[in-house]
Amino acid sequence: MTQSSVEPKTTAEDAGSGSPTPAGRSWLDRYFHITHRGSNVGNEVRGGVTTFMAMAYILLLNPLILSGKDVAGDTLSQKALITATAFAAAVTTLLMGFVGKVPLALAAGLSVSGVLASQVAPEMTWPQAMGMCVMYGVVICLLVVTGLREMIMNAIPLALKHAITMGIGMFVALIGLVKAGFVHASQGGGPVTLGPAGELAGWPVLIFCITLLAIFMLQARKVPGAILIGIVGGTVLAMILNAVAGIDPKAWRSGPPELSGSAVSMPDFSLFGKVEFGGWGEVGAMTVGMIVFTLVLAGFFDAMATIIGVGTEAKLADDKGRMPGLSKALFIDGAGGAIGGVAGGSGQTVFVESATGVGEGARTGLASVVTGLFFAACIFFTPITQIVPGEVASAALVVIGAMMMQNARHVDWADSSVAIPVFLTVVIMPFTYQITAGVAAGVISYVAIKLAQGKAREIGGFMWGLTAIFVVFYALHPIEGWLGIN
Predict the structure, then answer these.
(1) Cα distance between residue 113 and residue 97, in whole Å
(2) Would you tell me how many other CB atoms lie within 10 Å of the CB of residue 309?
(3) Which terminal residue of the chain has fewer beta carbons within 10 Å of its beta carbon, N or C?
(4) In this structure, are residues 109 and 352 in contact, taking their beta carbons and an 8 Å threshold?
(5) CB 315 within 8 A of CB 5
């Protein structure tokens, strides 16, 4: 049975085509069920704007994460990346508004982008990496259509779901610290060090520290849009110091905070359609399979919880987590992987920042339409976003990582069958710079500890299957040697 067969419906959706329509209701009201959900156009517009302001930082962070070289030594154009990020967010969010009719906004998932940058690009070209996005998006859509997505979600222990989110948070935070120059590869005894030689060096990294603290202080004060405000403030500070202190342009990792030319420009769609599905001979089928599996994991776990969480806050979900348009929302979220891959801006997923719009009164897809239109407008303002130095944008990455670590409060640290797998998942992801390795360690250790406790019946068939796959993942090199595969 698929999810669509059990989804509840609102009063408006229950009404047949012949039901009388209250006088004075506009087509907008009827289409989005605004009145029936206890909202009004003003609330929806305000909620849509608020959601955009809360997640606009992705226009800066996604290009920052995807700024590295691929296996061929090629890099992606920053202007094209900003265009692709804004375009994909606009398309998927508008789809969620018009089709899903729920107040959920989508954009490039930082966890997915992290996998592309750290695990996929070193093995493949960027077009092939975007092909991986398309593939994982298709897989998730198939899981939704067949009803398997919910079954898989239920099969994985809740503690491991929290651990995966926390581990990705640590991973994203490490990316931010490295991109800012706060953490460097050590030239001496240890693997990493503070700054290039055991101390921070230069004005840019100091601006990173100030921006990071400012965002944390704003969040502690519960200021709406704290991340965006911090980025804007950090950029202004960087521009002032750059002009007053005469900072060497080479000191800035992504160029000095200056506007060259007009603030408005034509969008750069040069990455659109640059997708390849072949040329994997040197990588191997096993590696391709693990990459797709990792991307599915990265884009899989947060989406359903976020959709249900925001839907509950908007009073759309019932006590079983069902809500109108749930299957459509999950399908659009999965399709976001393919859309983002085709656009060249990484896989798209639902953002928890959608809750900020709900807090302002958003209850329908009209709010998502408003958010999507703002993202569409940003396509023409890429020169403005390019002013933001990488050190300032990196601070937001660390903040996002800290927010994802809040899942630790849901873990029973007194239970070793939970605490040990969670610990291994969380620490191995950033220490190995590989999300798959962390998930594999968590799954294997969970099953091993349950066996040691004599609780094999609690494991479940799906977890046994995952364990077998991850054992092969860790033992792949000796297995290949045993089979004589180079």
Answers:
(1) 24
(2) 18
(3) C
(4) no
(5) no
- The amino acid occupying position 229 is I
Q: Are 281 and 486 in contact (CB under 8 A)?
A: no
H-state helical runs in 194-325: 203-220, 226-245, 285-313
At a CB cut-off of 8 Å and minimum separation 6, what does 414 contact? none
Q: Are strands 348-350 and 192-194 parallel, antiparallel or unpaired?
A: unpaired
**Residue 64 near residue 386, CB atoms below 8 Å:** no
Q: Which residues contact 63 (CB under 8 A, 6 or more apart)?
A: 76, 78, 81, 82, 85
Round to whole Å and give the CA distance between 416 and 412.
Answer: 9
Q: How many CA atoms lie within 13 A of 299 on its CB side?
A: 40
Helix (H) or strand (E) holding 193: strand 192-194
Q: What is the pLDDT of residues 180-226, one digit of tens each?
A: 888 887 777 778 888 777 777 788 889 999 999 999 999 899 887 78
Residue 81 tokens read as 């990346």
Cα-based torsion angle of the residue sequence 431, 437, 439, 441 in order, rounded to the nearest 10 degrees: -90
Beta bridge partners of 193: 184
For the ranges 243-252, 298-307, 447-456, the lowest mean pLDDT is seen at: 298-307
Determine the length of the chain.
486
Contact between residue 392 and residue 207 where contact means Cβ atoms under 8 Å apart: yes
Distance CA 244, CA 33 (A): 54
* CA–CA gap between residue 380 and residue 374 (Å, rounded): 11
Least Cα distance to 172 among 80, 84, 180 occurs for 180
Domain ranges of the chain: 24-409, 411-486
pLDDT at 154: 67
CB distance 407 to 220 below 8 Å: no
Instruction: Single out the residue of 453, 466, 342, 401 nearest to residue 114, CA to CA.
Output: 401
**How many CB atoms sit inside 10 A of residue 243's CB?**
12
Is 360 within 8 Å of 52 (Cβ atoms)?
no
Asked if 387 and 239 touch (Cβ cutoff 8 Å), the reply is yes
DSSP character string of 286-306: HHHHHHHHHHHHHHHHHHHHH
Other C-beta atoms lying within 10 Å of the C-beta of residue 451: 11
Q: What is the pLDDT of residues 438-479, one digit of tens each?
A: 888 998 999 999 999 988 888 888 888 888 888 887 876 676
